[in-house]
């Protein structure tokens, strides 16, 4: 008998650790990021029947000094206390437009809190209620890996022609890299405009870190061929590509993906069409290309919300995005049939780390004069990341 799928007669070997080896909560921690960290202090028990009352009381005691942001993918119990809801960029801007709020409690994930820190004033502190709320996609591109990639592009003689475009869902380090190299940030709403702008500045784009959003936008919206795209794998020498492949490509896609949207498959689309005759399939552009091609409509979270607001009563929809949002949309539109695209549960596990106990602990800590879990971006990183964010705001 062998284990780990090793052939008889061979030794089963552990795979070599990658720079992003899994860090188990409570066992190891990477203090430079959210990975593997846990919250200091004692959280109230999730079963505490007074949690809602405690959250209300602490929020009321803080008044205008606190502003709570709730990302669309957060749990209902957290959204209930949000002053505003939205996608990550809208929330960061909402926080910047609320300068009287000393404390910005970001109910979302780590990269979102970083963006809020970049866009808010030095007098405001951005707090992430659970430091373990990271984003697996953002973690798929580290500063070291991206610097190494740039060296590969330089050695291939093409770095001068490449414009980096980084998705909002990336760390502050990656945004800063993008700013330093004359690129732009994009969201899922403006990715087309960002790519069009980038192709006016250079002849190639390095798209970070979501290969699916990059490919879907390039092929569907810009009319490029899938063959114009190559995937750079940071775990392989040279990204797993030859210099010739890099020189021939127009889109160099980073090998990253969202672990929620990446789960939807062509089978999910085919199955729901059989299960719900007459259904309109609407998916997020972080889904795989084959899923996006098979769907009826594709759009960002904000687009999905608007499409369902505008939908006819009695219409049937299958939505391919995070489950917390889909369930809230179904509740908000009882006159329409709204189902989740996949039968299997598909929450974002890191978004779900922010729960009511963490929110109560955060608010009560602030009431007691302690400021927990502050997310700060160093000034040098902030300067370059802000340049890339400003370029996005200046997109035509
Ligand atoms: S839904 Fe995907 S991109 Fe968004 S935080 Fe979760 S893993 Fe990251």
Top keywords for this entry?
alpha/beta; binds iron/sulfur cluster; EC 2.5.1.72; iron-sulfur
Summarize the SSE layout with pairings.
Blueprint: H1 51-62, E1 66-71, H2 76-79, E2 84-86, H3 88-96, E3 103-107, H4 110-119, E4 125-127, H5 143-155, E5 162-167, H6 172-180, E6 184-186, H7 191-201, E7 204-208, H8 211-221, E8 229-232, H9 243-248, E9 251-254, H10 266-275, E10 280-283, H11 289-294, E11 297-298, H12 301-310, E12 316-320, H13 323-332, E13 337-340, H14 356-367, H15 379-393
Parallel strand pairs: 1-2, 1-3, 3-4, 5-6, 5-7, 7-9, 8-9, 10-11, 10-12, 12-13
The structure holds iron/sulfur cluster.
Describe the structure.
The chain contains 15 helices and 13 strands. It has helices at 51-62, 76-79, 88-96, 110-119, 143-155, 172-180, 191-201, 211-221, 243-248, 266-275, 289-294, 301-310, 323-332, 356-367, 379-393; strands at residues 66-71, 84-86, 103-107, 125-127, 162-167, 184-186, 204-208, 229-232, 251-254, 280-283, 297-298, 316-320, 337-340. It has 396 residues and is α/β, with parallel strands linked by helices. Helix 3 packs parallel to helix 4 (110-119) and helix 6 packs across helix 15. Helix 11 (289-294) links the parallel strand 10 (280-283) and strand 11 (297-298). The strands form 3 sheets. Strands 6-5-7-9-8 form a 5-stranded parallel sheet, with helices on both faces. Strands 2-1-3-4 form a 4-stranded parallel sheet, covered by helices on one side. The chain has a 4-stranded parallel sheet with strand order 11-10-12-13, sandwiched between helices. The site of iron/sulfur cluster (SF4) has 13 residues, from loops. Pfam families: NadA (PF02445). Keywords: 4Fe-4S, Cytoplasm, Iron, Iron-sulfur, Metal-binding, Pyridine nucleotide biosynthesis, Transferase. GO terms for molecular function: transferase activity. It is found in: Cytoplasm. Iminosuccinate binds at residues 71, 88, 167-169, 188, 284-286, 301.
């Amino acid at each position: 008998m062998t284990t780990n799928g090793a052939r008889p007669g061979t030794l089963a070997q552990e795979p070599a650790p990658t720079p992003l080896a899994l860090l188990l909560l409570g066992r190891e921690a990477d203090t430079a990021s959210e990975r593997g960290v846990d919250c200091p202090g004692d959280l109230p028990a999730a079963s505490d029947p007074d949690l809602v009352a405690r959250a209300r009381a602490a929020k009321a005691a803080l008044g205008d000094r606190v502003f709570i942001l709730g990302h669309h993918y957060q749990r209902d119990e957290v959204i209930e206390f949000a002053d505003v809801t939205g996608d990550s960029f809208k929330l960061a801007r909402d926080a910047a437009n609320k300068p009287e709020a000393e404390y910005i409690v970001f109910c979302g994930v780590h990269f979102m809190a970083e963006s809020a820190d970049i866009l808010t004033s030095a007098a405001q502190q951005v707090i992430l209620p659970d430091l373990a709320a990271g984003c697996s996609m953002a973690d798929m591109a580290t500063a070291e890996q991206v610097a190494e990639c740039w060296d590969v592009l330089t050695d291939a003689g093409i770095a001068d022609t490449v414009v980096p475009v980084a998705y909002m869902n990336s760390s502050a380090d990656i945004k800063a890299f993008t700013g330093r190299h004359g690129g732009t940030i994009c969201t899922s709403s403006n990715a087309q405009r960002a790519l069009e702008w980038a192709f006016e500045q250079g002849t190639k784009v390095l798209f970070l870190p979501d290969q699916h959003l990059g490919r879907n936008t390039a092929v569907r919206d810009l009319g490029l061929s899938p063959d114009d795209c190559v995937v750079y794998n940071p775990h392989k020498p040279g990204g797993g590509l030859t210099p010739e492949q890099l020189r021939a490509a127009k889109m160099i896609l980073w090998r990253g993906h969202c672990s929620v949207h990446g789960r939807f498959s062509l089978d999910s689309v085919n199955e729901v069409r059989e299960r719900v005759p007459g259904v309109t399939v609407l998916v997020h552009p972080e889904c795989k290309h084959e899923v996006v091609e098979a769907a009826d409509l594709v759009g960002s979270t904000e687009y999905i919300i608007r499409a369902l607001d505008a939908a006819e009563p009695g219409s049937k929809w299958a939505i391919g995005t995070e489950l917390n949002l889909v369930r809230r949309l179904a509740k908000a539109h009882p006159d329409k049939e709204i189902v989740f695209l996949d039968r299997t549960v598909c929450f974002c596990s890191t978004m779900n780390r922010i729960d009511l106990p963490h929110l109560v602990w955060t608010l009560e800590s602030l009431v007691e004069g302690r400021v927990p879990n502050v997310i700060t971006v160093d000034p040098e990183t902030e300067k370059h990341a802000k340049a890339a964010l400003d370029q996005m705001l200046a997109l035509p």
